[in-house]
Amino acid sequence: MTISARDSILGSIRRHLPEAAERPGHDGPWIQYPDPLSQFASVLEAIGGRCVRVKDVAEINQDLATFPVYAAARMMVSLVPGAGRSVREMANVADPHELADVDLAILPGDFAVAENAAVWVTDAAVKHRVIYFLSQHLALVVSAGQVVHNLHEAYARLTFDAARFGAFIAGPSKTADIEQSLVIGAHGPRSMTVYLME
Amino acid sequence: MPRVGLFIPCYVDQLYPDVGLATVELLEQCGCDVDFPTAQTCCGQPMANTGCTEAAKPLARRFLEIFRDYEYVVAPSGSCVAMVRNHYHDLVHEHPDFEAVHTKTFELCEFLTDVLKVDGFPGSFPYRVGLHQSCHGLRELRSGKSSELNVPGFNKIGGLLESLDGLQLVSLQRPDECCGFGGTFAVSEEAVSCMMGLDRLHDHEQSGTQVLTAGDMSCLMHLQGLIARQKKPLAVMHVAQILAGRKPQLPA
Amino acid sequence: MTSATAHRDHPETAAEFVANDARAHWHDQSLWFVRARRDKASQTLPEWEELRERASKVKLHTMSRMADYLEQFERNAIALGAQVHWARTPAEHNEIVLGIIQKHNATRVVKSKSMLTEECHLNPFLERNGVVVTDTDLGEWIVQLRNEPPSHIVMPAIHIKKEEIGELFHDLLGTEKGATDPPYLVNAARQKLREQFLNAEIGLTGVNFAIAETGGFVVCTNEGNADLGVSLPKVHIACMGIEKIIPKAADLGYFLRLLGRSATGQPITTYSSHFHGPRPGGELHIILVDNGRSNILASPEFRRSLNCIRCGACMNTCPVYRRSGGHSYSTTVPGPIGSILAPTRDAQEHASLPFACSLCGSCTDVCPVKIDLHNQLLTWRRELALKFLVPFDKRLGMSLAAAVFARPWLYRVGGAIARRVFPWLPRMLVYNRWNPWGRQRELPEMPAQSFRALYARRKRNHKVPSDQKPASR
Q1: What span, in angstroms and rounded, lies between the C-alpha atoms of C35 and C263?
Q2: What's C442's DSSP letter?
Q3: Do C390 and B50 touch (CB under 8 A)?
Q4: Region class of C277: left (phi > 0), else alpha (psi between -120 and 50), else beta
Q5: CA angle, C136 as apex, C131 and C241 as ends, to 5°?
Q6: How many other CB atoms are there within 10 angstroms of residue C460's CB atom?
Q7: CA angle, corner C345, sides to C342 and C349, nearest 5?
Q8: Predicted confidence band at C2 (pLDDT cuts at 50, 70, 90)?
Q9: Which residues are CB-contacts of A79 (< 8 A; sequence separation ≥ 6)?
Q10: Does C356 sit within 8 Å of B189, measured CB to CB?
Q11: Quick count: other Cβ atoms within 10 Å of Cβ A71?
């Protein structure tokens, strides 16, 4: 009988294991910002995103009214109650391919990270996770009280039991694969707006 | 009076005798009792860096035996000192003299700065000086902060140079990129090596260097070779020569 | 793709790249620009060096318990509904992938960038078996369309000029003739690749980090291509080298902070996606590949090379890589880390790579997970010498030199003769094609006397000058 690849690999690893080495803990001198919200906003702008501070949903709608993407968008999905309008109801979408024509998605973000302008999103909040990537433009709404300083604080609050899929999204899709010229809008959203809501 | 065994790399001995003399003068000025043991030849670095460990080992053992009785071993070369300090372990760690010798071997500028606590030298050198940070001095001996690391800045060689009146260190576009010498690399990868060297020279020319210096004559031999072929208006001096008061041979 | 052609050593392929001076300098400057961005990004975090230290320690710890962590990962991944496969070799890996594709009667696969599948030469294998694979990372797609391997692990098309991409897209996508504007070209690719995403039956990705504690894994991209590729089709195949395992999700704090900043100078990659099990109604396959990694684990000298998180920083900083181009290495992963990994697979074929290095050590200082790259390259040289894979002339030269250096009298006399004879030799005897030093460089001027001769004379005649004492603190 031949030994399985699994047992053979694990056996080879066990034969070759180096001596024990301790695992470092997670506490450390990790950066804290005097004003994490403005840190978040400035990093987001530096990576090609747009940060708008709002008090409530009404202010989101005020901003959308002046946002050219919103004016031009025909197909929209909003999963933030009261923010923008939903042309297509996610609940009625059976196959994610049906979302191919979405111009703008307005979606909730769980929390945000000041050091790198990343927003944590999950598939618990949306029916089809592809919406985060397939929509031509993306707007995420995050509570201003949910901005942590750094990624260590972010992982300290993450558990992976509720959602099967979660992602940090930091800015619009981009590429620099042609001569290192930064181009916004590679395959995913061509713009990313984050509404930090009081 | 610290008793210093002078370690003069083989190619400096044969090709750049004045660098050795300048080193002797500096150490004596600083109150050292300097001795040059004549049995020394080569530390074994060319062999070790080519992978020829067995050829390098006898030279490393010779080195330990020649230098074991000195209080310090000092060389005007970061690269050869890095060989002894960082890489002899792989060759001769079981030798009874290994531990003592490899910890008391110093590159000239770090010896002046760290052991003798010299702040600077009298004299003037009214020129724009381009300091080539030899990689082994910089990244193996930590003679300064390399541009990759995020630690507080320091530069032992630059600090000594700047103590001279009128000396102006130029700032380069790429402060510590390799010159492309790299021992046998200079020959086996000739094309890349020379491109690297020419790029360093271009940076120095753009930055206004008049006198190009370094703690290692090997890098300078390569760069000088390119300068001489291209007849570039750059003078080349080892840092020991500048500190010891030599004057540059600038083009008229 | 390389097996059919005669293997060529790095000095030869590098010299060809360098021969086009303008292009070599353009390449060097493009990558130096990325290195400079990395410097700037790393300087925004005062804790940078601490992060490097921690990340390296996590990796070393993980290696010391790698089998346990892989088993834990497997258990947790299966509990989440994933199917876990193991592959010893590229051939086993490719067969597993093909088996999954065939089980679904599928022919259209979209793939996001995975150096592991490059290592396994998966694309040509699948193509031979009637599968249409589309690489969806823009740079990877460009090199796929040009039918060549990537030249960099993060920026696969860094060696290609926008004029060449414009021409390629004109021929294949019908973009305007002569159009070279990157946004225009990217948009054309976007349109074309959207069709591929929407039509794909299977999405294939690499894995940046696999988490033992949770059974999930993380894939990082800037374009969002991995997410599009695995969120539309029902089947997701994730291929990972076994060294991608980390103990806990919280360890990602170290790695994701280091990865983007080291790779491109970004504070984090645009998308850092965490997959835990298949999506509802979908299928998730995870393939764990060894391909020599478990052997490296045994070696104290080379073990740390398994720390690698494939950020590419060692390539961007390497003065040799920047000037010789990724293809000059003739291996999947080029540059310093590639020159360590390739000889573990085939020491003879890749024997020139550990010598494609001036031992400057910049890679070691730039590495976010503290791989002592230049020391490992030096160790490889020793290994190659033991295997008699160092060229004979080099070995002979070194043995002769060592024999001379072992005899001070011979060294002294030899040096004296050389110094006297050289200046009298006709130039053509010194500067000819057998002297690579002298092709672009002059030899040093030969002094009349050696240092030791001058020192001996000085000792006889000279008193120490005591008028000039240095300042002391």
Answers
A1: 8
A2: P
A3: yes
A4: left
A5: 80
A6: 7
A7: 70
A8: very low
A9: A86, A90, A105, A106, A107, A108, A125, A126
A10: yes
A11: 9
Q: Could you tell me how many residues make up chain A?
A: 198
Q: Calculate how close chain C gets to A174, using CA atoms only, in Å.
A: 5
pLDDT at site B252: 66
Question: In Å, how far from its chain's centre is CA B187?
Answer: 20
Q: Do chains A and B touch (3 or more CB pairs under 8 A)?
A: no
CA-based R_g, chain A, Å? 21
Residue-wise pLDDT tens digits, B23-62: 999 999 999 999 999 999 999 999 999 999 999 999 999 9
Q: What single-letter amino acid sits at A178? A: I
Distance (Å, rounded) from C-alpha C387 to C-alpha C184? 52
In whole angstroms, how far apart are CA C224 and each of A98, A174, C133?
Answer: 18, 8, 18
| Cβ–Cβ below 8 Å for B55 and C453 | no
Paired tokens of C325: 């181009």
C469 has pLDDT over 70: no
Query: How far off is chain B from C377, nearest CA to CA, in Å?
Result: 10
Q: By C-alpha distance, which of B45, A18, B92 is closest to C381?
A: B45
Percent of chain C scoring above 90 in pLDDT: 86
Predicted pLDDT at B82: 98
- Minimal CA–CA distance to B243: which of B211, B220, B218, B221? B211
Q: Give the residue from C94, C211, C241, C213 showing the smallest Cα distance to A13.
A: C241
